[in-house]
Amino acid sequence: MQTTGSIAALVERGLASLRARSADAAALLDDTAFAGRVGKVIAASDFALETLRKQPVLLATFKRDDGAETLAPPLLSTDDSATWPEQLRLYRAAESTRMVWRDVLGLDEVDAILAGSTRLAENCMRTALEALETEFAQRHGLVRAADGSVQRLVVFGLGKLGGGELNFSSDIDLVYAYPQGGESDGARPLAAEDYFARLGQRLAKLLDEPTVDGFSHRVDLRLRPFGNAGRVALSFAGMDQYFQREGRDWERYAWLKARAVAGDTEAGEQWLQTLRPFVYRRYLDFTALDGLRDMKAAIAAEVARRELADDIKRGPGGIREIEFLAQALQLIHGGREAALRERRLLPALRALMEARQISQEDGDALIHAYRFLRKLENRLQMLRDAQTHALPENALDRARIARGLGYQDWSALNAALAVQRERVAAEFSQLLAPRQRDATPDVLTAYWRALPGAGDAEALAAAGFVDPASADAALRDFANSSGVLGLSDGARARLDRVLPALLEGAARSSQPDAAVKRLLVLLRAILRRASYLALLDEQPSALNRLVDVVARSALLAERLALYPLLLDELLDTRVGGPMPDRPVMRRQCEPALQEEDPETALRALNEQRLALSFRIALAALDGRQNARDSARQLAWLAEEVVRVVLRMAQAEVVAAHGEVAGGRFAVIGYGSLGGEELGFGSDLDLVFLFDADAAAVSSGARSLEAGRWYARLAQKLVALLGAATGAGRLYEVDVRLRPDGAKGLLVSSLSSYRDYQRERAWTWEHQALVRARGVAGDASLLEEFEAIRAQTLARARDVGKLREEVGSMRLKMRAELDRSDAARFDLKQGAGGLVDLEFLLQFLVLRDSSSHAALLGPRDTQGLIDALRAAGTMDETQAESLLRVHGYFVSEGLNCTLDRRPRLLPENEATLSARAVVREEVSRHGLGFDLAADSQPIQ
């Protein structure tokens, strides 16, 4: 009760001092309700009282609108620079007091106060810098680069300023830069380096230097390259050189929130885009945790040394732990997920929740704790405009803070604070805690660490390896390799933890010996990539998943070794969830179009293709979806890739040759792409169509007639799809199914394609048309292709001749391509295999579609069988048998592909039964696929 009386007395003294300032103030305070509101503010802030005493006119402003309108910054005249410090400081005090008023009276949430404090700092910086720039221009002229362009200072705001969440009495972390070197053009010229250094120092002094009116903003320039030992301002080239050669882990955290806040902000934001690869690595980057552990250890030592346990920023469970937690997860995952590249903390936490890197419950708790702590931090600073984060020791100060925040007393506030800090500390500790993995047997750890000079292969035999001598030789060779011997101490320590765990996992796997050899190939590929070793060290779940995958799939092991970025997929929270559909694939492929450099764009697109196809493969390997669904998704992915690459190709051809007015272009997918049954590593069978006026010519300076223009476009599309990038090639393309095959034009006009299908196409080409489907290009042209296809397939045919031609072509193919032997069956080309089934369905479509239009719709095997069942061509039992056989063949083929085996199946009961079903249906329709093969080559 004593503190209650003390607060009341403090308020009364404050009100009395305001009344004594002026008659106008006294009159305003005669309003009891208004005086009560002023009293609440006085109870919470000595700073606000002092400002109101110096600027009593603010009382009228607050009475009028409760400080709803922000105050306008001052106009600094170059004719009266001596008044600049006073004007800035009075403005800063007035606007800060307005925010105290809004906060204490509950008119604004803490988010608005943080944004308002940021806006105030920016207004002061920009106002001061504009005045100083005018003064410098009069004295020294403007800095001009070698090309004559004017150069301006760029002011980067880091920390909470960059994130738009500045606390009430925070200092501001600034870094100065400028786009290009040069010299000023005035009577007293200066080199750009000196010009901008002086300008930056003057800006800091104008904001920071204490006067009788206090300060505007404390400025901290220590985060610049090389800290206090570095130059005050660097060119963008100098900044680039620094971050390429000297950039440290903690600077990634600092620059994650960086924002151009004053000066040439447009140039600054453009440069920050170039810094993105330094901040966000292209792969999952668990090395960020090492930097965070180092920073946390340094802060913990400082807290202990300076007894800062009650510091709500740096102490346990404080604001900084929430910031570090969010930033660490952003740095780990942000290279792959653009939505996580967020400067502001609360949106970053929400993005992490959306990406399932933080659970909804934990994220909501952290957001609540953050707002609680930031509101308390602001009140601590509002009390006397002090840059403090420590809880007060004075009883009256404690009571003022507690009452102002709506708590009965300090103990109630302290209890609520403890709850929030405990939750934050627990979350932060969980992030930094070493991940618990199954204990690796001491014998395997001792064996590995003894290599290459010692160690006994018996340790491998005891662990469960079938051929321990071979595994031992491979491990000794690896341990003695230059890659391992050249590792840093830190990387070697990681390897010494990771490799025994890999050996233990391999020993428990389905194929121990194959697994360890595949793992060693991968390790050789990632030894110099610290982030990947860190991933396996920090995430035992990823390590265990890796061993499981490489043991079961030679293909995926090979892809992981070639493209280690796929290791990220082993930790992606989406891997075990729903598989991506067409819209998701499109959203993930299209961002590549935003890249200006074609090679970068292709690499980005290929990385997405690799990641998505790897995810599809994992789902198939785990049995989370059947093989037919996997084949369909691979075809969808290829289609989206072709769409994107077509847009890239069009942009390049238009840039070189202009556009063809009214012209149209379409890409037709044949074979497994058209039939939506693509395999891993399959090439794409493509045919290109165009339609344009016969006399049309492109509009560019290097114009081309329409046919050549579209041929150039198709060539560019094929070249881009097959171009080698850092992430491999997208797809090999086969264009031999075009009219007249290898002898024909690469691109066909719509009219010539129509004529060819009607007059000159072979029966086997009409068979291929059954599975053909438009995949990219002009929608109206794709519709016209559909009409040509329907007219061609629906033509009435001589069934006997059709049967003979289909059978003859099948026999020719089998004679040249069937790899079956006495013990094994060629799944694709063997008698009763996949191609027999495809030819059967194509024959039936060509035979019956003239009387059953519904057969013209489907392209995939399942859809064709269903349509033939509906048309009465086959009964329920026959259709179901063929669907079952097709599913079996596709599944077995996928298993062979995943394990890098030829698609040759043992002649077991399941295979013989499946073949018999196909052969029976082939025979039922009179197709002679099992007759002696004709020796003529395929036309």
Q: Beta-strand level of the residues, as a percent range?
A: 5-15%
Kindly, what is the distance between the CA atoms of the first and last residues, rounded to a whole number of angstroms? 103 Å
Biggest sheet statistics: 5 strands, mixed
* DSSP strand count: 15
Structural class, by secondary structure, is: alpha/beta
- Envelope shape: elongated
Q: Point out poorly predicted stretches.
A: 932-939
Q: What count of helical segments does DSSP give?
A: 40
Any idea what the radius of gyration is? Answer: 36 Å
Mean pLDDT: 91
Report helical residue fraction.
Answer: 55-70%
Describe the protein:
This protein has 939 residues and is α/β, with parallel strands linked by helices. The model is unreliable at 932-939 (pLDDT under 50). Strand 1 (143-144) and strand 2 form a beta hairpin. The chain is built from 40 helices and 15 strands. The chain starts with a helix and ends in a 15-residue tail after the last helix.
Structure at a glance:
Helices cover 60% and strands 6% of the residues.
Structural features:
single chain; alpha/beta; five-stranded mixed beta sheet; 40 helices
Topology:
Elements: H1 2-21, H2 23-29, H3 32-44, H4 46-54, H5 57-65, H6 84-104, H7 110-140, E1 143-144, E2 150-151, E3 154-157, H8 159-162, E4 172-178, E5 183-184, H9 192-208, E6 219-220, E7 233-235, H10 236-245, H11 249-256, E8 259-263, H12 265-279, H13 288-305, H14 319-333, H15 345-354, H16 360-384, H17 395-404, H18 410-432, H19 442-450, H20 458-463, H21 468-479, H22 482-485, H23 489-508, H24 512-526, H25 530-538, H26 540-552, H27 554-562, H28 582-589, H29 598-622, H30 627-657, E9 664-670, H31 671-674, E10 684-691, H32 706-722, E11 733-734, E12 747-749, H33 750-759, H34 763-770, E13 773-777, H35 779-793, H36 799-817, E14 824-826, H37 834-848, H38 861-870, H39 876-898, E15 904-906, H40 909-924
Parallel strand pairs: 4-6, 4-7, 10-11, 10-12
Antiparallel strand pairs: 1-2, 1-5, 3-4, 3-8, 9-10, 9-13, 14-15
Helix pairs in contact: 1-2, 1-3, 1-4, 1-17, 4-6, 6-7, 7-9, 13-14, 14-15, 14-18, 15-16, 16-18, 19-23, 21-24, 23-24, 23-25, 23-26, 24-26, 24-27, 25-26, 26-27, 28-30, 29-30, 30-32, 33-35, 34-37, 36-37, 37-38, 38-39, 39-40
